[in-house]
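Mods, move this if it's the wrong board.
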Amino acid sequence: MKLTLDHTERLNLHALLGAQPSDVGSIRTIWAVQDRIALDPDDENPSS
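Not the wrong board. Structure tokens:
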């Protein structure tokens, strides 16, 4: 499955994943997902 998100959706998903209570294994998995959805340098500055 491939999920395509714009920069706002990625930010929202990143925040939601970071708010989840979990154990160490789940946190590491969440971090891996957050790394994959991290913003590109172009997305970090939407005004440019």
